[in-house]
Amino acid sequence: MVQADDADLPDAGLLDVDLFQPALDAVCGVGQRLGEGCEAIRARPMLPSADWPWRTVGRVNSTDRNIRSHCTGTLLASTVVLTASHCLYNFQRKAWIPVQSLFFVAGYQRGKGQATARIARYVVDPVHDVSSRDFRAGFAQDWALLILDEPILDTMGYLPLAAFSPADKSAKVQLAGYPALRSHVLSLVEACGATSTDRANRIYLNSCAAMRGDSGAPLLINTGGAYQIAGVFVGTFVTPSGVFSLSVRNGVFRRALQNALDGGGS
């Protein structure tokens, strides 16, 4: 696990929420917005998952003790996949999912993928203790790096992390994932709306039409067809003013990524 001094531990809350309270079906299940939200997800255009850059996105599949589930993940390097840490935790059994029960399928589409890899280990935020039965993260700590047991090479390279400012209006903010309503095809949220941040400047708040299954999806910055990764989608949050999609900004886990690439972070 990534090591950090106590002073480096991030605030566990978001907007004064101290406990992890994902509402990953919120877009599809908030009162009168039920039909509207689900239709927005069904209307997301399908992406050609065998093509660049979409083949770097894939499904993180879990087969933990007869419970099958999936999230979305993105290759950041030949052996590193970005996803959400709650994808690695079985909330029903209150236990962390062993690496033997996880695998990543790059460029997944309708039962087939461009490449499949097992997970050797994973790196999560220091607030976690994966030897315990607890999930301790707030939204800002809900990120994970999966270290693959074999590299997945891509001749085109991998999407870079973006230095993105919400004040920049020249780029489109988008999201690519595998929502539960259409779990076997990669689809795109073409417009995530305006971007703001939480007070700690660790979370991007948008209005992406996303839900369960999209967890771990890359929050993308599209500048004239050139894509970069601004963060990782971790859930939705219901407030009196509406439903927000939440993504951990890449600055939170950038040091952990560099450590993993350097061979550390075990």
What's the quick description here?
This protein has helices at 26-29, 34-42, 254-261, and strands at 57-64, 67-77, 80-83, 89-90, 95-96, 102-106, 115-124, 144-148, 172-177, 187-189, 196-197, 203-206, 218-223, 226-239, 242-249. It is mainly beta and 266 residues long.
Report on this model:
- The chain has helices at residues 26-29, 34-42, 254-261; strands at residues 57-64, 67-77, 80-83, 89-90, 95-96, 102-106, 115-124, 144-148, 172-177, 187-189, 196-197, 203-206, 218-223, 226-239, 242-249.
- 8% of the residues lie in helices and 34% in strands.
- It has 266 residues and is mainly β.
- A hairpin with a 2-residue loop joins strand 13 and strand 14.
- The radius of gyration is 17 Å and the shape is globular.
- The strands form three sheets. The protein has a seven-stranded antiparallel beta sheet with strand order 10-9-13-14-15-12-11, with no helix packed on it. The protein has a six-stranded antiparallel beta barrel with strand order 1-2-3-8-7-6.
- It has three helices and 15 strands.
Write the layout of secondary structure elements.
Layout lengths: L25 H4 L4 H9 L14 E8 L2 E11 L2 E4 L5 E2 L4 E2 L5 E5 L8 E10 L19 E5 L23 E6 L9 E3 L6 E2 L5 E4 L11 E6 L2 E14 L2 E8 L4 H8 L5
Antiparallel strand pairs: 1-2, 1-6, 2-3, 3-8, 4-5, 6-7, 7-8, 9-10, 9-13, 11-12, 12-15, 13-14, 14-15
